[in-house]
Amino acid sequence: MEMQKTNLQIVDILNDWDPFQFGHGGYEPEIADIVQAVHELDSPTELALRIQSIFEFSFEKILPLEECLRIANELLLVKNDGSCSI
Question: Distance between CA 64 and CA 54 in Å, rounded?
Answer without folding.
Answer: 13
